[in-house]
Amino acid sequence: SQQGEEDPQALSIQEGENATMNCSYKTSINNLQWYRQNSGRGLVHLILIRSNEREKHSGRLRVTLDTSKKSSSLLITASRAADTASYFCATADPYNQGGKLIFGQGTELSVKP
Amino acid sequence: ETGVTQTPRHLVMGMTNKKSLKCEQHLGHNAMYWYKQSAKKPLELMFVYNFKEQTENNSVPSRFSPECPNSSHLFLHLHTLQPEDSALYLCASSQQTSGKNNEQFFGPGTRLTVL
Fold first, then answer.
1. Are B100 and A103 in contact (CB < 8 Å)?
2. N or C: which end of chain A has fewer CB within 10 A?
3. What DSSP assignment string belongs to B32-84?
4. What residues are paired with B91 via a beta bridge?
5. Strand partners, B107
6. Which pLDDT tens digit goes with each residue over A79-94?
7. Which residues of B, range 58-87, sit inside 8 Å of A by Cβ?
8. Is residue B111 within 8 Å of B19, Cβ to Cβ?
9. A92 and A29 in contact (C-beta within 8 Å)?
10. pLDDT, tens digit (0-9, with 9 covering 90-100), for B25-84
11. B2 contacts in A (CB within 8 Å)?
């Protein structure tokens, strides 16, 4: 079964508003990562939060992790049109030494100018 | 620029053709990955190489054949593909495959169309 599932699948907001995306997962994790993908391009790593961390910031990004609920959220503050992209969460199984990251289906964010 | 390059960026091939995708990373990483991204589907891991050794084959059909001659280069050889193999093929690398610092750096992808 799929490990990471993002919610919502699509989100449309106005420039300047905040965007919140959620990710739920099923098994224990070593860390959880968020990636961004512009249309038809490769993924770009945004932020990694370890299983013993609860919150992490990077510029306009804020990530939270609740291991008791097996969920994470990505908040983008003061959004810009250039933030339009798909956002994916990915989880790493602590018992898998083979490097397998499991990605969710992603949230498509559209920021209108 | 993420330090991972892929060629070609676009590829159209017939079902009887043989072609290869190339990936190169300039980050000094030890692990490299192939992913397949189809429309409306999650990213699918295909292969993982760690220090040139294949550590994961995610039940990929034999018409996809990976090759990793060294830690900086990764190839995906394609032969007798099917139209359903049309997708964006992404290469990625990471410093290590396990542990707490396994964030992956992706190339721009090869958009493959099989006619």
1. no
2. N
3. EEEEEE-TTS--EEEEEEETTEEEEE-S--TTEEEEEEETTEEEEEEES--GG
4. B34
5. none
6. 999 999 999 999 877 6
7. 58
8. no
9. yes
10. 999 999 999 999 998 788 899 999 988 888 888 889 999 999 999 999 999 999 999 999
11. 42, 44
- Smallest Cβ distance to A41: which of B42, B101, B108? B108
CB-CB: which of B2, B42, B96 is closest to A105?
B42
- Chain A residues with a Cβ under 8 Å from any Cβ in chain B: 2, 4, 30-31, 33, 35, 40-45, 48, 50, 88, 92, 96-106
Nearest beta carbon to residue B90 from set A2, A43, A98 = A43
Query: Which residue is associated with the tokens 């721009």?
Result: B108
Mutate to test the interface with A, among B53, B94, B103 (most CBs of A within 10 A): B103
For residue A1, list chain B residues with Cβ-Cβ distance below 8 A.
Answer: none
Whose CA is closest to A75, among A50, A107, A51?
Answer: A107
How far is residue A97 CA from its own chain's centroid? Answer: 22
Spatial distance between the Cα atoms of A103 and A108, rounded to a whole number of angstroms: 14
DSSP B76-113: EEEES--GGG-EEEEEEEES-SSSS----EE---EEEE
Residue holding tokens 């990929």? B60
